[in-house]
Specification:
167 residues, transmembrane, 0% strand, mainly alpha, VTT_dom, globular
Length: 167
């Protein structure tokens, strides 16, 4: 029984391995990590780049596109939630301040979508507030590209050398 579980786990890990799936795995992880699910994609990017440093820019760009698509999905989730939600007569002062801040900055606030913890909900709130979709997506993409370039370059600097292949 234990051998079959170990074989199943090893098979699952091999199927999901970044070296084998490469940019596809980075894309999927980046899309999922930009929704409201708690997942980070930086290690998938750095893992692939450490295996093949020539994939730095393709991995960063694929992760940026995937993460931006995930942010756009969050925008639409917020938009749909707002449409389904009955507006409260009064909002707490802190909520009103946060919403006022987002409305004041508009789509440019989506530059901060790269931030941990608040970035993904920010995209949903932008949809909730019905901020213009395409400008929000552009600002999301700019912020996410800057994050991936910075994080991948920093991790490559902190962890120099090639990583051994898995499997």
């Amino acid at each position: 029984m234990e051998a079959s579980i170990a074989a199943w786990v090893n098979g699952l890990l091999a199927a999901l391995a970044v070296p084998r799936l490469g940019l596809t795995a980075v894309f999927v992880v980046s899309v999922v990590s930009a929704t409201l699910l708690p997942l980070g994609s930086e290690f998938a990017v750095i893992g692939l780049v450490k295996l093949d440093e020539s994939l730095f820019w393709p991995a960063v760009l694929v992760a940026t596109v995937g993460n931006t698509i995930g942010g756009a999905i969050s925008w639409w989730m917020g938009y749909g939630a707002e449409r389904a939600y009955e507006r409260l007569a009064e909002r707490p002062p802190s909520e009103a301040r946060a919403l006022g801040w987002l409305q004041r900055f508009g789509a440019k606030a989506c530059l901060l979508s790269w931030l941990p913890v608040v970035g993904d909900p920010l995209c949903a709130v932008a949809g909730w507030l019905r901020l213009p979709f395409w400008p929000c997506v552009v600002y999301m993409a700019i912020g996410k590209l800057a994050r991936y370039v910075t994080m991948t370059a920093a991790l490559m600097w902190w962890f120099p050398g090639r990583w051994p292949a898995i499997g």
